[in-house]
Amino acid sequence: MAMLELHQVETFYGLSQALFGVELTIEGGEVVTLMGRNGMGKTTTLRTIMGLQPPRHGTVRFRDRDVTGWPSHRIARLGIGYVPEGRHVFANLTVRENLLATAANHAGTLEPWTVERVMSLFPRLAERHQQFARTLSGGEQQMLAIGRALMTNPVFMIFDEATEGLAPLIREEIWTVLETNLREAGQAILVIDKHPEAMARIADRHYVMEKGRIVWSGNSAALLADQAMQERFLGV
Ligand code: ATP
Protein backbone atom coordinates (compact mmCIF):
# COMPACT_ATOMS: atom_id res chain seq x y z
CA MET A 1 0.00 0.00 0.00
CA ALA A 2 1.39 3.36 -0.98
CA MET A 3 1.66 5.88 1.82
CA LEU A 4 1.14 8.79 -0.52
CA GLU A 5 0.24 9.03 -4.19
CA LEU A 6 -0.13 12.18 -6.26
CA HIS A 7 -1.59 11.53 -9.69
CA GLN A 8 -1.69 14.13 -12.47
CA VAL A 9 -1.89 16.94 -9.93
CA GLU A 10 -2.50 20.45 -11.24
CA THR A 11 -2.65 23.20 -8.64
CA PHE A 12 -3.46 26.86 -9.25
CA TYR A 13 -3.24 30.15 -7.38
CA GLY A 14 -6.21 31.90 -8.95
CA LEU A 15 -5.51 31.97 -12.66
CA SER A 16 -1.86 31.16 -12.30
CA GLN A 17 -0.96 27.48 -12.58
CA ALA A 18 1.79 26.34 -10.21
CA LEU A 19 1.80 22.52 -10.64
CA PHE A 20 1.58 20.63 -13.91
CA GLY A 21 0.78 16.90 -13.95
CA VAL A 22 2.73 16.09 -10.81
CA GLU A 23 3.18 12.34 -10.22
CA LEU A 24 4.73 11.34 -6.93
CA THR A 25 4.58 8.15 -4.88
CA ILE A 26 5.94 7.28 -1.46
CA GLU A 27 5.70 3.73 -0.16
CA GLY A 28 5.45 2.85 3.52
CA GLY A 29 8.89 2.94 5.14
CA GLU A 30 10.46 5.04 2.39
CA VAL A 31 12.41 8.26 2.80
CA VAL A 32 11.94 10.38 -0.29
CA THR A 33 13.18 13.87 -1.11
CA LEU A 34 11.73 16.65 -3.19
CA MET A 35 14.39 19.03 -4.49
CA GLY A 36 14.58 21.97 -6.83
CA ARG A 37 15.55 25.62 -6.86
CA ASN A 38 13.45 28.33 -5.23
CA GLY A 39 10.02 28.93 -6.70
CA MET A 40 9.87 25.63 -8.61
CA GLY A 41 6.80 24.29 -6.79
CA LYS A 42 8.02 22.35 -3.74
CA THR A 43 6.01 24.33 -1.23
CA THR A 44 2.95 24.21 -3.47
CA THR A 45 3.31 20.42 -3.67
CA LEU A 46 3.35 20.23 0.13
CA ARG A 47 0.38 22.57 0.40
CA THR A 48 -1.46 20.34 -2.05
CA ILE A 49 -0.64 17.18 -0.07
CA MET A 50 -1.82 18.78 3.16
CA GLY A 51 -5.04 20.13 1.69
CA LEU A 52 -4.06 23.78 2.14
CA GLN A 53 -4.09 24.39 -1.62
CA PRO A 54 -6.30 21.66 -3.12
CA PRO A 55 -5.52 20.64 -6.70
CA ARG A 56 -7.86 21.73 -9.47
CA HIS A 57 -7.20 18.48 -11.35
CA GLY A 58 -5.75 15.15 -10.36
CA THR A 59 -5.87 13.16 -7.14
CA VAL A 60 -4.07 12.93 -3.83
CA ARG A 61 -4.28 9.55 -2.11
CA PHE A 62 -3.01 9.06 1.42
CA ARG A 63 -2.90 5.55 2.91
CA ASP A 64 -5.17 4.28 0.18
CA ARG A 65 -7.79 6.94 0.70
CA ASP A 66 -8.66 9.59 -1.84
CA VAL A 67 -8.18 12.76 0.22
CA THR A 68 -8.44 15.18 -2.69
CA GLY A 69 -10.38 18.22 -1.51
CA TRP A 70 -10.46 17.16 2.14
CA PRO A 71 -9.98 19.97 4.68
CA SER A 72 -6.44 20.00 5.96
CA HIS A 73 -7.28 19.17 9.59
CA ARG A 74 -8.87 15.90 8.46
CA ILE A 75 -5.85 15.01 6.34
CA ALA A 76 -3.50 15.86 9.20
CA ARG A 77 -5.46 13.57 11.50
CA LEU A 78 -4.73 10.60 9.24
CA GLY A 79 -1.23 10.86 10.67
CA ILE A 80 0.92 13.54 9.04
CA GLY A 81 3.67 15.05 11.17
CA TYR A 82 4.83 18.33 9.68
CA VAL A 83 8.19 19.90 10.57
CA PRO A 84 8.31 23.43 9.18
CA GLU A 85 11.32 25.58 8.38
CA GLY A 86 11.99 28.04 11.16
CA ARG A 87 11.05 26.23 14.35
CA HIS A 88 7.45 27.10 15.30
CA VAL A 89 7.55 26.12 18.93
CA PHE A 90 5.67 27.73 21.82
CA ALA A 91 8.18 30.29 23.09
CA ASN A 92 6.66 30.59 26.56
CA LEU A 93 6.29 26.89 27.27
CA THR A 94 9.15 24.77 28.53
CA VAL A 95 10.75 22.12 26.36
CA ARG A 96 8.81 19.39 28.16
CA GLU A 97 5.52 21.32 27.91
CA ASN A 98 6.08 21.87 24.19
CA LEU A 99 6.39 18.13 23.70
CA LEU A 100 3.38 17.28 25.87
CA ALA A 101 1.27 19.84 24.01
CA THR A 102 1.22 17.84 20.77
CA ALA A 103 1.06 14.32 22.24
CA ALA A 104 -1.49 12.21 20.37
CA ASN A 105 -1.76 8.80 18.81
CA HIS A 106 -4.54 8.99 16.23
CA ALA A 107 -3.14 6.18 14.14
CA GLY A 108 -2.88 3.86 17.15
CA THR A 109 0.89 3.27 17.02
CA LEU A 110 1.82 0.36 19.31
CA GLU A 111 4.98 1.92 20.70
CA PRO A 112 4.13 5.60 20.78
CA TRP A 113 6.68 8.37 21.12
CA THR A 114 7.00 9.74 24.62
CA VAL A 115 8.75 12.79 26.04
CA GLU A 116 11.51 10.48 27.28
CA ARG A 117 12.02 8.84 23.91
CA VAL A 118 12.24 12.20 22.16
CA MET A 119 14.74 13.40 24.74
CA SER A 120 16.92 10.35 24.25
CA LEU A 121 16.93 11.16 20.54
CA PHE A 122 18.06 14.74 21.25
CA PRO A 123 20.08 14.83 24.48
CA ARG A 124 20.27 18.63 24.25
CA LEU A 125 16.52 18.72 24.85
CA ALA A 126 16.88 16.49 27.89
CA GLU A 127 19.47 18.84 29.37
CA ARG A 128 17.12 21.77 28.81
CA HIS A 129 13.77 20.17 29.56
CA GLN A 130 12.73 22.83 32.09
CA GLN A 131 13.88 25.82 30.03
CA PHE A 132 11.47 28.00 28.11
CA ALA A 133 11.67 27.26 24.41
CA ARG A 134 12.54 30.89 23.69
CA THR A 135 15.85 30.45 25.47
CA LEU A 136 16.97 27.65 23.14
CA SER A 137 19.32 28.15 20.21
CA GLY A 138 17.88 27.99 16.70
CA GLY A 139 19.12 24.45 16.23
CA GLU A 140 17.69 23.30 19.55
CA GLN A 141 14.35 24.85 18.67
CA GLN A 142 14.41 22.93 15.41
CA MET A 143 15.08 19.71 17.33
CA LEU A 144 12.12 20.57 19.53
CA ALA A 145 9.98 21.15 16.43
CA ILE A 146 10.93 17.66 15.22
CA GLY A 147 10.14 16.27 18.66
CA ARG A 148 6.74 17.95 18.58
CA ALA A 149 5.98 16.33 15.22
CA LEU A 150 7.10 12.92 16.58
CA MET A 151 4.84 13.31 19.62
CA THR A 152 1.83 13.20 17.28
CA ASN A 153 2.97 9.66 16.35
CA PRO A 154 2.78 10.34 12.65
CA VAL A 155 2.60 7.56 10.08
CA PHE A 156 4.11 10.01 7.60
CA MET A 157 6.44 12.95 8.25
CA ILE A 158 7.26 15.98 6.17
CA PHE A 159 10.52 17.84 6.77
CA ASP A 160 10.05 21.18 5.03
CA GLU A 161 13.53 22.70 4.68
CA ALA A 162 13.85 21.82 8.34
CA THR A 163 17.61 22.38 8.47
CA GLU A 164 17.77 25.63 6.52
CA GLY A 165 19.89 28.28 8.16
CA LEU A 166 21.24 26.01 10.91
CA ALA A 167 24.90 25.63 11.80
CA PRO A 168 26.50 22.74 9.88
CA LEU A 169 27.11 20.66 13.02
CA ILE A 170 23.49 20.91 14.14
CA ARG A 171 22.31 20.14 10.63
CA GLU A 172 24.46 17.00 10.66
CA GLU A 173 23.04 16.01 14.02
CA ILE A 174 19.49 16.29 12.69
CA TRP A 175 20.31 14.39 9.49
CA THR A 176 21.91 11.63 11.53
CA VAL A 177 18.79 11.26 13.66
CA LEU A 178 16.71 11.13 10.51
CA GLU A 179 18.96 8.50 8.97
CA THR A 180 19.72 6.26 11.92
CA ASN A 181 16.69 6.63 14.16
CA LEU A 182 13.71 7.43 11.97
CA ARG A 183 14.56 5.81 8.65
CA GLU A 184 15.78 2.61 10.23
CA ALA A 185 12.60 2.43 12.29
CA GLY A 186 10.65 2.42 9.03
CA GLN A 187 9.22 5.93 9.34
CA ALA A 188 7.96 7.19 5.97
CA ILE A 189 9.28 10.70 5.35
CA LEU A 190 9.19 13.32 2.64
CA VAL A 191 12.16 15.67 2.92
CA ILE A 192 12.37 19.01 1.17
CA ASP A 193 16.00 20.07 1.12
CA LYS A 194 18.75 21.57 -0.97
CA HIS A 195 21.73 19.32 -0.28
CA PRO A 196 21.89 16.46 -2.78
CA GLU A 197 25.01 14.87 -1.23
CA ALA A 198 23.42 14.62 2.21
CA MET A 199 20.05 13.66 0.76
CA ALA A 200 21.64 10.78 -1.17
CA ARG A 201 22.86 9.48 2.17
CA ILE A 202 19.64 9.74 4.13
CA ALA A 203 16.95 8.99 1.52
CA ASP A 204 15.98 6.13 -0.78
CA ARG A 205 14.58 8.04 -3.74
CA HIS A 206 14.44 11.60 -5.02
CA TYR A 207 12.22 13.85 -7.10
CA VAL A 208 13.41 17.05 -8.72
CA MET A 209 11.07 19.89 -9.70
CA GLU A 210 11.42 22.60 -12.29
CA LYS A 211 8.71 25.14 -13.08
CA GLY A 212 5.93 23.13 -11.46
CA ARG A 213 6.85 19.79 -13.05
CA ILE A 214 8.70 16.71 -11.87
CA VAL A 215 11.64 16.65 -14.28
CA TRP A 216 13.75 13.91 -12.72
CA SER A 217 13.34 11.04 -10.30
CA GLY A 218 15.59 8.22 -9.26
CA ASN A 219 17.47 6.52 -6.45
CA SER A 220 20.47 7.86 -4.57
CA ALA A 221 23.07 6.25 -6.81
CA ALA A 222 21.42 7.79 -9.87
CA LEU A 223 21.25 11.18 -8.16
CA LEU A 224 24.95 11.21 -7.32
CA ALA A 225 25.90 9.95 -10.77
CA ASP A 226 23.97 12.63 -12.66
CA GLN A 227 26.16 15.70 -12.21
CA ALA A 228 24.68 17.37 -15.28
CA MET A 229 21.16 17.10 -13.86
CA GLN A 230 22.35 18.49 -10.52
CA GLU A 231 23.94 21.48 -12.22
CA ARG A 232 20.93 22.12 -14.41
CA PHE A 233 18.12 21.76 -11.87
CA LEU A 234 19.69 22.11 -8.46
CA GLY A 235 22.32 24.70 -9.22
CA VAL A 236 25.00 22.60 -7.55
P1 ATP B 1 10.72 28.01 -2.30
O1 ATP B 1 11.74 26.99 -1.97
O2 ATP B 1 11.26 29.36 -2.60
O3 ATP B 1 9.56 28.04 -1.35
P2 ATP B 1 9.15 26.40 -4.04
O4 ATP B 1 9.84 25.43 -4.93
O5 ATP B 1 8.56 25.90 -2.81
O6 ATP B 1 10.12 27.57 -3.71
P3 ATP B 1 6.52 27.44 -4.58
O7 ATP B 1 6.49 28.31 -3.39
O8 ATP B 1 5.71 26.22 -4.56
O9 ATP B 1 8.03 27.07 -4.95
O10 ATP B 1 6.11 28.33 -5.84
C1 ATP B 1 5.78 27.77 -7.10
C2 ATP B 1 5.15 28.85 -7.99
O11 ATP B 1 3.90 29.25 -7.47
C3 ATP B 1 6.02 30.10 -8.09
O12 ATP B 1 5.96 30.57 -9.42
C4 ATP B 1 5.33 31.07 -7.16
O13 ATP B 1 5.51 32.40 -7.60
C5 ATP B 1 3.88 30.66 -7.25
N1 ATP B 1 3.19 30.93 -5.97
C6 ATP B 1 3.52 30.43 -4.75
N2 ATP B 1 2.67 30.87 -3.80
C7 ATP B 1 1.78 31.66 -4.44
C8 ATP B 1 0.63 32.42 -4.02
N3 ATP B 1 0.21 32.42 -2.75
N4 ATP B 1 -0.04 33.12 -4.96
C9 ATP B 1 0.36 33.10 -6.26
N5 ATP B 1 1.41 32.42 -6.72
C10 ATP B 1 2.12 31.70 -5.83
Automatic annotation (TrEMBL):
Keywords: Amino-acid transport, ATP-binding, Nucleotide-binding, Transport
GO molecular function, one term: ATP binding
Residue span, ABC transporter domain: 4-236
Record PROSITE patterns: ABC_TRANSPORTER_1, ABC_TRANSPORTER_2
SMART domains xref list: AAA
InterPro entries (UniProt xref): AAA+_ATPase, ABC_transporter-like_ATP-bd, ABC_transporter-like_CS, BCAA_Transport_ATP-bd_LivF, P-loop_NTPase
Gene Ontology biological process terms from the UniProt entry: L-amino acid transport
Top-level taxon of the source organism: Bacteria
Family stated for the protein in its record: Belongs to the ABC transporter superfamily.
PANTHER family, A to Z: ABC TRANSPORTER ATP-BINDING PROTEIN, HIGH-AFFINITY BRANCHED-CHAIN AMINO ACID TRANSPORT ATP-BINDING PROTEIN LIVF
Listed name of the protein: Leucine/isoleucine/valine transporter subunit ATP-binding component of ABC superfamily
GN (gene name): livF
